[in-house]
Amino acid sequence: MSLKSSKFVKLISEKLHVIVITLSIFLVVTSPWILIGSRLRAKASIWDSLHVYIGLIAAIFGLLFLLKNLLNGHWRQFFPWLRLDFSQCIDEIKQLKQGKLPSSGGKGIFSIVEGIGLLLMALVSITGIAWFILQGSSDALMWRKYHIMFAQGFVGFLMIHIVFAAFHIIDMVRNS
What we know:
The protein is mostly helical. The chain is built from six helices and no strands. Helix content is about 75%, strand content about 0%. The model has no long low-confidence stretch (mean pLDDT about 90).
């Protein structure tokens, strides 16, 4: 790998969150105009075509983002429940009762919700790719149904993520 390509990979790695969010917002905002059944029609609308091909790009970046967040032990931050580690989450729930916002980072409420978002993003990506690969087959509509179901969950996560980001900003302002 050349020095230039390693700089490019590092730059993409640092920007994955922004890339994934930007592509996801585009796909969510334009999704009401999508009319795709078991296959992308030969004379599909620009919105259908953009959704499919930008969606495939988003799926690749989304899965890379998941992989980046799972490497080097970071999975422990987003999925502490896999190790039955609920200590920070329980502490933050107790502090919520006293009016204190959860902290960002660590293995608390925000991180667990972000882990759920990572899983939903991966499921949207995988089901979208499966739907694309199997388009026109008898299984395509099943994958479409799963894709829509997980996409709706991901939209819910995005809304919660925005609220949590606002809490994070409030916490930063309060602590400065």
